[in-house]
Amino acid sequence: MMERDELRLLAQMLTAELERQHSAELAPKWQYGTVIFKPSEPSLKQHEISMERFMHKVVMMRDNLRVLEQQVNANKNLELGEKIKLQGYITKIYGSMTSFNFMFANEDDSFVGSTSDK
Questions:
Q1: Less CB within 10 Å around the terminal CB: N or C of the chain?
Q2: CA distances from 67 to 70, 74, 93 (A)
């Protein structure tokens, strides 16, 4: 049985690894920037989030979408037609996410809607 301190260290290591996996470099012009969500109703409060945090959320969606795609393709219980249908939805999501490509410093990190390797 692991000690409490060992479990805490393991959790920190796993968190660090997940953060490393869910990373991409933010384009320099956006570093230290802020995303502001301003409602049309002036009496409502706006919401602000750092560009770094927003980028992290986008990258997490990208990485989780890649995992979903891999799992669909590797699933032995799905018929070919079902895989093609699900892959079509995934490709459309990638296409929608290309709106965020302006944030990435490296083109290799960006979304591509027409191929399955992004």
A1: N
A2: 5, 10, 13
